[in-house]
Design goal:
single chain, 8-stranded parallel barrel, alpha/beta, 9 helices, 19% strand, TIM Barrel, 37% helix
């Protein structure tokens, strides 16, 4: 396994700080989910006019871009053109960076449509995306998120997607905290389609002022109640050799630890668990 940090956790950092911190703490890569003020990196000069500079800085730090995380939501029929426009921006960037992994969301309006209907829409959207130039050379991974958190629901969506170009991004916190599954249960059910992993930790503290709607509060890896140790060991035991990404949500959750604290804590947790 290789570890990567998500830029969701350091929205105020410039590229040099990201690269230096990642390299100094033993990270192998960076997952770009936004850069500074822009959530869509294809809209930032660092990934357009200054892309060559960006690639050189990453290479100098010995880092790989592990993935690009988009806001594409495949199960909304009325967002087809919006989704295709975003895909058209990310495909050439992925090829320039040598990235083969692009994250998308499922989402969809589950109040108006059944999951079966939403899954069919998702399948249609992905086939439309794959028809774009260069798209079929990439892996389009649906995150275990929103309507598609449990393994059974993920399987329903996967059945509508082309096997050769799609898979699952497993957010361990979502399937355990929201889906009610143990890591072993998730891996037994959809482990054959998991190609990328997000990890963060949390405690159940519904009275905390920072608690999410479900009562959970994010904390540093290893300091919470989520079975992320079990997940990492299960992945290791099963021979998973892909990316494990620290998805620290500083951009969305300002109360969480600053990135200069969180990233080293994740790297130390990772090494300790696998000792």
């Amino acid at each position: 396994m290789r570890i990567s940090l998500s830029t969701l956790g350091c929205p105020d950092w410039d590229l040099d700080t990201i690269c230096t911190t990642a390299a100094d703490n033993g990270f192998d890569g960076v997952d770009f989910r936004g850069y500074r003020e822009e959530i869509d990196v294809t809209q930032h000069p660092q990934f357009t006019d200054r892309l060559v500079e960006t690639m050189a800085r990453l290479a100098d730090a010995g880092l790989t871009v592990s993935g690009l995380s988009t806001s594409i939501r495949i199960c909304f029929a009325d967002k087809r053109e919006e989704n295709l426009a975003e895909a058209r921006r990310y495909i050439p960037l992925a090829h320039e960076l040598g990235v083969d992994t692009i994250r998308v969301f499922g989402v969809g309006d589950a109040e108006e449509h059944s999951l079966e209907e939403l899954a069919r829409v998702g399948g249609e959207t992905v086939r439309d995306i794959l028809a774009l130039d260069g798209a079929a050379d990439l892996r389009w991974l649906v995150e275990t998120h929103d309507n598609w958190t449990s393994s059974a629901d993920c399987r329903l969506l996967l059945d509508e997607l082309p096997d050769d170009n799609t898979g699952i991004l497993w957010d361990v916190g979502h399937t355990t905290r929201l889906g009610g599954e143990s890591p072993a249960e998730t891996l037994d059910a959809i482990g054959d389609r998991i190609e990328y992993v997000h990890v963060k930790d949390a405690v159940y503290a519904p009275d905390d002022e920072n608690a999410k709607d479900d009562g959970w509060v994010f904390v540093l890896p290893g300091e919470g109640e989520l079975p992320i140790d079990d997940a990492l060991r299960e992945l290791d035991d099963r021979g998973y050799d892909g990316w494990v990404v620290h998805e620290h949500e500083k951009r969305w959750q300002p109360y969480v630890a600053d990135p200069e604290v969180a990233y080293p804590a994740f790297a130390e947790w990772y090494r300790t668990v696998l000792e």
